[in-house]
From TrEMBL, chain A:
Residues 1-26 are annotated as: Disordered. This is Protein EARLY HEADING DATE 2. GO terms for molecular function: DNA-binding transcription factor activity; zinc ion binding. Keywords: Metal-binding, Repeat, Transcription, Transcription regulation, Zinc, Zinc-finger. It comes from Ensete ventricosum (Abyssinian banana). Transcription activator that acts as a flowering master switch in both long and short days, independently of the circadian clock. Promotes flowering upstream of HD1 by up-regulating FTL1, FTL4, FTL5, FTL6, EHD1, HD3A and RFT1. Seems to repress FTL11 expression. May recognize the consensus motif 5'-TTTGTCGTAAT-3' in target gene promoters. Pfam families: C2CH-3rd_BIRD-IDD, C2CH-4th_BIRD-IDD, C2H2-2nd_BIRD-IDD. PANTHER family: SERINE/THREONINE-PROTEIN KINASE RIO, ZINC FINGER PROTEIN MAGPIE. PROSITE patterns: ZINC_FINGER_C2H2_1, ZINC_FINGER_C2H2_2. Residues 44-66 form the C2H2-type domain. InterPro entries: C2CH-3rd_BIRD-IDD (IPR055187), C2CH-4th_BIRD-IDD (IPR055185), C2H2-2nd_BIRD-IDD (IPR055186), IDD1-16 (IPR031140), Znf_C2H2_sf (IPR036236), Znf_C2H2_type (IPR013087). One of its GO terms (cellular component) is nucleus. It comes from the Eukaryota.
Automatic annotation (TrEMBL), chain B:
A motif (VHIID) lies at residues 148-152. Residues 330-408 are annotated as: SAW. Signal peptide: none annotated. Residues 117-182 are annotated as: VHIID. The lineage of its organism: Eukaryota, Viridiplantae, Streptophyta, Embryophyta, Tracheophyta. This is GRAS family protein. Pfam families: GRAS (PF03514). InterPro entries: TF_GRAS. Belongs to the GRAS family. Keywords: Transcription, Transcription regulation.
Length: 437, 409
């Protein structure tokens, strides 16, 4: 891809393919400009009168006005060599020539955004920007954007949305829902092969993310944080002494090696960017390591997506794209933080936890979880379920009627202790799995 | 002055005629009817202070006829002030206050509290003004610190903190660790704070902010708060956030309380209080009454204009006021539960100057506040304090309503 750009010097190619930011042509000349130069606004100086201009085109237009003899009118021969620019900030990932940016405007903007002072401010919400064009672009959409919470409430103001979200029951329910859906994934996983697993988990993550997204304001980091939180909550659950026998055969065999955190979480970046995998978890990750475009990759596994609660199913595609395009905050920084925190929180031995926890992906587990104890007041209002053995009104039947219906479809005789998939033997697992999709 | 209940049934005929006549005359004059409640209430308060039981009977009877907590602003003011004046006249203030507290406790729940306060914040910047100012000052004072400890003594049930958590998560490259210690007096509903704590923890996890939450409870009153209870740790930067808190300290204990706070060596102390003076007039009933009436008239009118006409949340907020009004007008100072004697910004400044020095809000914070006010209905504006007072005022129709100020050691 990079080769194309340099070899086509005569007729320009029909469409120059944009390479990933910070992966420059290896034969380009590396230029390191000083911070002062990068921040300067009038870089282009007329050699005749000394007037400064922001853009080279403007300078050339101006020079014509000086009536120069033809020879001097030509610009000093521009080097045919392509130039790339590095960031002077040592801690920045773009400091290294291998990650230089190819465009002067680009490096200037980058430097301002990441390392510069935020001088420009939005009138309406007083959000601050270092680059004026960023600020202008924001002002156009500021106040017009709507923030939608999972519970259905819509806000025009970000601060009221945030406050609402912190206290919203949807936040609490979501934790329960994600925990439950992770459970169901796991039983099938243990059954099948692991390669399928990682895709599944990835799609699971995507599922949970999309369910949690509300109109672009949920960032990738929040989602990763979500997923990590679910696992850690899961891990932290107490003992369950119910009916281990039914589930043990599902879980015990086929465990040739313990599942790593990555496999379980289905690290979305794992197979795509193997080089970046370690960087997610490493301390030296700098803010530029994960450009948001990478999240787009998670759109692909959607074909593998299991059906999720109806209320989020229609929103996947749209929200994925939105999420990928406009993260609200420095997503990469958040992602990094969430990863670090999540790692600390999560259990070191996931496998053992699964054996005890996921015996029945069912509501009894959830009813025993300390997590849900918190939400008893909201659970109490939910309608009762048809499960004989549940001690609590089942939140999931209420929230996910479609899921429950699917279980019923399986025509299980004597369905007393139905698990999530409506099965109690490994062999049927696969078919009811299809019943999901 | 005790009133017997029989007199209530049969008001003196002479006064009855006179007052009825007065009322009719007043009704003809359109300007007079606008503030009929204030007039009657004022007469009533005067009657109490003059020990004029006949007149008092009459006025109470009339007010009772005209008042209603479900009517317009005048009727509401009449209703709630009538209750307080009645308590004052019959010396039932303490009893009434205790009963109101008990009733409020009984019906309080996380859901109802949340609903009321969030709706209020949607409709009016009354509380969010203080939140934005305080958060701004706190974030600036905490710049560069890795271990933060916020001591929150406020009456807004932690609704201030989600935006601060979000700012911590997004503003800095290294998210600091935040400890939040909330002081809840008995009147604030223990189980509600537990629920709130859990939500805060979840939200902090969502934001990716390392977080610790703790409640100091079982305090009948704020004066009982001791330095040791905060459990300060080495190396942490402390901020004290007092929103609607200082007024809940008994008047005579206020200076000592502030002294105790200064021993915590906080980076910043943020104070937000409603602009009213129920303290310096403590001994004089009528002036106290006037100030009370002035403040609550503004408050009720503000509520009326901010909410929809049939809002249950507004009703709940109005009911909250009745406790305060009874406490200020009809209780003697041996208050059970929270004191409600507000002081004005200037007065608080004088107290705070003993242990702290004022820290002005930065231009960024002021910009944020202006942007905040723009998002609400017109009528609100920001006015810097002048003279010997520091801080900022939120004004409603040019009248100062809420005062916010930041202090450093």
């Amino acid at each position: 891809m990079a080769g194309e750009a340099i070899s086509s010097s005569n007729p320009p190619p029909a469409k120059k393919k944009r390479s990933l930011p910070g992966t420059p042509d290896p034969e380009a000349e590396v230029i390191a400009l000083s911070p002062k130069t990068l921040l300067a606004t009038n870089r282009f100086l007329c050699e005749i009168c000394g007037k400064g201009f922001q853009r080279d085109q403007n300078l050339q237009l101006h020079r014509r006005g000086h009536n120069l003899p033809w020879k001097l009118r030509q610009r000093t021969s521009k080097e045919p060599r392509k130039r790339v620019y590095v960031c002077p900030e040592k801690s920045c990932v773009h400091h290294h020539p291998s990650r230089a940016l190819g465009d002067l405007t680009g490096i200037k903007k980058h430097f301002c955004r990441k390392h510069g002072e935020k001088k420009w401010k939005c009138d309406k919400c007083s959000k601050r920007y270092a680059v004026q064009s960023d600020c202008k672009a924001h002002s156009k959409t500021c106040g017009t954007r709507e923030y939608r919470c999972d519970c259905g409430a819509v806000f025009s103001r970000r601060d009221s949305f945030i406050t609402h979200r912190a206290f919203c029951d949807a936040l609490a329910e979501e934790t329960a829902r994600v925990a439950a859906s992770n459970m169901s994934r796991l039983t099938s996983i243990c059954n099948g092969n692991f390669s399928f697993t990682s895709d599944l988990m990835r799609s699971n993550i995507a599922n949970n993310f999309s369910g949690a997204i509300s109109n672009t304001t949920m960032t990738e980091a929040e989602m990763v944080g979500h997923a990590r939180r679910e696992l850690s909550l899961w891990m932290g659950e107490g003992d369950h002494t119910e009916n281990l026998s039914k589930r043990n055969d599902l879980l015990n065999p086929h465990q040739s090696k313990p599942l790593s955190t990555d496999d379980l979480f289905g690290n979305p970046f794992a197979s795509r960017y193997p080089n970046q995998l370690s960087s997610i978890y490493s301390d030296e990750l700098t803010s530029n390591a994960l450009p948001t475009s990478r999240m787009k990759e998670t759109e692909n596994p959607q074909s593998l997506l299991l059906s999720v609660p109806s209320r989020s199913s229609t929103q996947h595609q749209h929200q994925h794209q939105q999420m990928a395009m406009t993260p609200d905050v420095s997503a990469t920084a958040l992602l990094q933080k969430a990863a670090l925190i999540g790692l600390n929180a999560s259990c070191a031995t996931p496998l053992s936890c699964f054996e005890t926890k996921s015996q029945e992906c069912n509501f009894r587990f959830l009813s025993n979880s300390s997590l849900l104890d918190v939400n008893h007041s909201s659970l109490a209002t939910l309608s009762g379920n048809t499960m004989d053995n549940s001690t609590l009104p089942n939140p999931l039947t209420r929230v996910y009627p479609t899921r429950h219906l699917m279980i019923q479809k399986d025509d299980e005789p004597g369905g007393e202790t139905r698990d999530f998939l409506g099965v109690d033997a490994p062999t049927i697992c696969a078919s009811s799995w299809n019943g999901w999709v | 002055m005790m009133l017997s209940t029989e007199n209530m049934q049969n008001p003196h005929p002479h006064y009855h005629q006179t007052f009825a006549g007065c009322l009719e005359l007043e009704l003809d004059d359109p300007n007079a009817t606008e503030r009929w409640a204030a007039e009657l209430l004022r007469e009533c308060a005067t009657a109490i202070s003059e020990n004029d039981s006949g007149k008092l009977h009459h006025l109470l009877w009339m007010l009772n006829e005209l008042a209603s907590p479900y009517g317009d602003c005048e009727q509401k003011l009449a209703s709630y002030f009538l209750q307080a004046l009645f308590c004052k006249a019959t010396e039932l203030g303490e009893h009434c206050y205790k009963t109101s507290l008990a009733v409020a406790e009984r019906w309080r729940s996380f859901e109802s509290t949340r609903k009321v306060i969030l709706k209020f914040q949607e409709a009016s910047p009354w509380t969010t003004f203080g939140h934005v100012a305080s958060n701004g000052a706190i974030l600036e004072a905490f710049e560069g610190e890795a271990k933060l400890h916020i001591i929150d003594i406020s009456n807004t049930y932690c609704t201030q903190w989600p935006t601060l958590l979000e700012a911590l998560a997004t503003r800095n490259d290294d998210t600091p660790h935040l400890r939040l210690t909330v002081v809840a007096t008995v009147g604030m509903g223990g189980s509600v704070m537990d629920e709130i704590g859990q939500r805060m923890e979840k939200f902090a996890r969502l934001m990716g902010v390392p977080f610790e939450f703790r409640v100091i409870r079982n305090l009948t009153r704020l004066d009982e708060l001791k330095y040791e209870e905060f459990g300060l740790r080495e190396g942490e930067a402390v901020a004290v956030n007092c929103v609607g808190a200082l007024r809940r300290v008994s008047v005579q204990e206020r200076d000592a309380f502030l002294g105790m706070l200064s021993r915590l060596l906080p980076r910043v102390v943020t104070v937000v209080e409603e602009e009213a003076d129920f303290t310096s007039c403590k001994g004089e009933f009528v002036s106290c009454f006037e100030e009370c009436l002035r403040f609550y008239t503004m408050y009720f009118e503000m509520l009326e204009e901010s909410f929809a006409p049939t809002s249950n949340e507004r009703l709940a907020l109005e009911r909250e006021c009745s406790k305060s009004i009874v406490s200020v007008l009809a209780c003697d100072g041996h208050e059970t539960g929270d004191c409600e004697r507000r002081e004005k910004g200037r007065q608080w400044c004088q107290r705070l100057m003993e242990s702290f020095s004022p820290s002005s809000f930065s231009d960024d914070v002021v910009d944020d506040l202006k942007a905040l006010l723009r998002r609400y209905r017109p009528g609100w504006s920001l006015v810097p304090a002048e003279g010997d007072a520091s801080g900022l005022y939120l004004t409603w129709k040019q009248e100062p309503a809420v005062w916010a100020c930041a202090w450093k050691p």
